Amino acid sequence: MSHSRIVSYMNIAHFIDHYAMLIFAAAVIVIAPTFGMNYGELLPYATPGFIAFGAGSLFSGWLGDKWSRRNMMGIFFIGMGLALAGISFVQTPIQLGAMLLLVGIVASIYHPVGTAMLVSNVDKLGKEMGINGMWGNVGVATSALVTGIINEYFGWRAAFWVPGLACLFIGLLFLRDVPRAADRISKKSAAGMARVPKSVMAWVVASLIITIIASSITFNSVTVALPKIFQERLSNLTSNTAALGTITFLVYLFGALAQYIIGNLLDKTSLKNVFLPLAITIVPALFFASTMTDYGLIILAIVIIAAVFGQVTVNDTMLGKYTIDEWRGRAYSARYFLGFTAAGLSVGLVSILYNQGGFDLMLKSIAGLSLFTVLGAMIFPQEKRIH
């Protein structure tokens, strides 16, 4: 059983995870009128699913460590296929919310289990985290693009059952190609080597907690709201949902590229040297984007997405370096429980801020919140480089 094959499936799973969680964010524009509702009214029905995305990770990571990471990932692929296909049959907002909750529960498996499985099978942690992050964010980008196109030409129900069938097929291939013995594979990797003195580990933990909560709310708020922001603010350029999906896709590709570049940088320089500039960049970019339209907004959106997505690679690499393999699933489950639970609350936050003051208020508020990420970066200690 090759390590590279396991890594490949984990990259595909990361793509699926983010693609699946953001189908609704792109489709809600089309779904809301069919239920006689507006965007702000229907969006909160996704909140339980996003909270489950984080809360479920605690149990998922524990099961992965104690039972089987391979089997948990099999459940992820098959379960996601069934859950997405099921959404295409819903008839009421309550049914939609219930199925989105199921998607969130299944989606909670990947990050604690899949990331731990990935880290155990790589040598260059930063580089592979960057590549893996790239797959996840191409999933985010492709979700906006493909969902926009399917919504426009085939209807919103097809936007769920088509990827659902693809997940089922990939799941069957995974169970065939990755044997149960994969759980025993644990390569000696670049991960799990503490690179700061034990005396300052408390600052590492404090930095992680502050950063994970603040950056996760920022990440999710931006990715959930971006299709609607573009629909409102790019109206002088286009109103076609497929075209808007294409623009969103291209913006997210810059985020994926940033993750690849940042992942490689993390193998060559200290975390703080990458962490702090990224954190600082996010704040003014969000603030100025609050009043931008058309091409200016697209340029600032690229900066925001690149910085926010790069931050995810930094967070995951930080955790990978400071945990041992036996506990890694549980460590990542705690990280994603904090992050995605905070992110789940951000869906309601976007809805409230949007209803109170539109995206002007929402983006300025998220810019203010992002100052906590800067604080987290500032208190993070410098590493001792190991050559």
UniProtKB/TrEMBL annotation:
<dbReference type="InterPro" id="IPR020846">
    <property type="entry name" value="MFS_dom"/>
</dbReference>
<dbReference type="GO" id="GO:0005886">
    <property type="term" value="C:plasma membrane"/>
</dbReference>
<feature type="transmembrane region" description="Helical">
    <location>
        <begin position="336"/>
        <end position="355"/>
    </location>
</feature>
<dbReference type="InterPro" id="IPR011701">
    <property type="entry name" value="MFS"/>
</dbReference>
<feature type="transmembrane region" description="Helical">
    <location>
        <begin position="75"/>
        <end position="94"/>
    </location>
</feature>
<feature type="transmembrane region" description="Helical">
    <location>
        <begin position="297"/>
        <end position="315"/>
    </location>
</feature>
<feature type="transmembrane region" description="Helical">
    <location>
        <begin position="12"/>
        <end position="36"/>
    </location>
</feature>
<keyword id="KW-1003">Cell membrane</keyword>
<feature type="transmembrane region" description="Helical">
    <location>
        <begin position="242"/>
        <end position="262"/>
    </location>
</feature>
<feature type="transmembrane region" description="Helical">
    <location>
        <begin position="134"/>
        <end position="154"/>
    </location>
</feature>
<keyword id="KW-0812">Transmembrane</keyword>
<feature type="transmembrane region" description="Helical">
    <location>
        <begin position="42"/>
        <end position="63"/>
    </location>
</feature>
<feature type="transmembrane region" description="Helical">
    <location>
        <begin position="100"/>
        <end position="122"/>
    </location>
</feature>
<keyword id="KW-0472">Membrane</keyword>
<keyword id="KW-1133">Transmembrane helix</keyword>
<dbReference type="GO" id="GO:0022857">
    <property type="term" value="F:transmembrane transporter activity"/>
</dbReference>
<feature type="transmembrane region" description="Helical">
    <location>
        <begin position="274"/>
        <end position="291"/>
    </location>
</feature>
<feature type="transmembrane region" description="Helical">
    <location>
        <begin position="200"/>
        <end position="222"/>
    </location>
</feature>
<dbReference type="InterPro" id="IPR036259">
    <property type="entry name" value="MFS_trans_sf"/>
</dbReference>
<protein>
    <submittedName>
        <fullName>MFS transporter</fullName>
    </submittedName>
</protein>
<dbReference type="Pfam" id="PF07690">
    <property type="entry name" value="MFS_1"/>
</dbReference>
<feature type="domain" description="Major facilitator superfamily (MFS) profile">
    <location>
        <begin position="6"/>
        <end position="385"/>
    </location>
</feature>
<keyword id="KW-0813">Transport</keyword>
<dbReference type="InterPro" id="IPR050171">
    <property type="entry name" value="MFS_Transporters"/>
</dbReference>
<feature type="transmembrane region" description="Helical">
    <location>
        <begin position="361"/>
        <end position="380"/>
    </location>
</feature>
<feature type="transmembrane region" description="Helical">
    <location>
        <begin position="160"/>
        <end position="179"/>
    </location>
</feature>
